[in-house]
Specification:
alpha+beta, three-stranded antiparallel sheet, 9 helices
């Protein structure tokens, strides 16, 4: 906008303004009431008074709509102040050379539009409250049930107290437990380790050679890692706990005491 001046006062014109400009809420408008002062230079005046008035009104309409359509109905005061700052002083609207204007415009909301805007705000408030309540419910549920794997197991068990015979722990581990960080769950770690050892044990079968190679590998790993103080896997040829335990006689009786010389009494 330029601000060189509108020229002498006797060359200015005035027009009453009554218009409706959109708000940011579809279907609800601000009512604009006021006066428009304008002056057109020769290139616009050549079309006559009606042409100059139309150009001024269209320029004001463009300015007003550009401001009000950015505001919600409840922002009436802000829209009014923005409009006042934009048109209260003489200026040449952008893209309209040869035209000067200023205006004093008051924005209003009709009772019907004010009522529609209030109903909209009430509906938004209700939806927002429902969403907040649902978020709070889920958050409290998460903190109470999914805070730890043990708490989640208790919740799962409580849900199936009446149908314990059909309690599906596999489904729990597959669908529910991952939601609580099962990777950090001691019991889950123990289960995975036990499944791994069971897999190894089944693979070894009854082949003594397989047992010997696996045992030698375990001892090598423990030695390389410096974990010799760990609970060691039996060394190749070392009797297991079952083999080292006292045997039962063929007749089922307890073994008799052994003398210092190794002969039974």
């Amino acid at each position: 906008m330029t601000t060189d001046g509108p020229g002498p006062w006797w060359s200015r014109r005035r027009s009453r303004i009554r218009a409706q400009w959109p708000t940011r809420l579809p279907g609800i408008r601000f009512c604009a009431r006021g006066t428009l002062a304008y002056r057109a230079h020769a290139n616009i005046k050549a079309g006559g008074t009606a042409t100059a008035r139309a150009a001024a009104r269209l320029a004001l309409d463009d300015i007003g709509r550009g401001i009000t359509e950015r505001h919600m109905p409840e922002q009436l005061t802000t829209a009014q102040e923005s409009l006042t700052l934009a048109v209260a002083h003489w200026h040449t609207p952008k893209d309209t050379p040869g035209l000067w204007l200023k205006a004093h415009i008051t924005l209003l909301l009709t009772d019907q539009d004010a009522d529609r805007a209030q109903r909209y705000q009430d509906a938004i408030r209700e939806v927002t409250l429902q969403l907040a309540e649902e978020h709070e419910r889920r958050e409290r549920f998460r903190q109470a049930v999914f805070n730890s794997p043990d708490a989640t197991r208790i919740w799962w068990l409580d849900r199936h107290l009446d149908t314990l015979e059909s309690l599906d722990w596999d489904l729990f581990k597959e669908k529910i437990l991952p939601l609580v960080g099962a990777a950090d769950d001691i019991q889950s770690k123990a289960e995975r380790i036990s499944h791994t050892l069971l897999y190894v044990w089944e693979k070894l079968g009854n082949d003594p050679g397989q047992h010997a190679r696996f045992t030698a590998t375990v001892h090598t790993v423990l030695d390389q890692m410096g974990w010799n103080d760990a609970l060691a896997w039996p060394a190749p040829g070392e009797p297991s706990a079952v083999d080292a335990s006292p045997s039962v006689r063929d007749d089922g009786a307890e073994p008799g005491p052994v003398s210092e010389t190794g002969t039974a009494r």
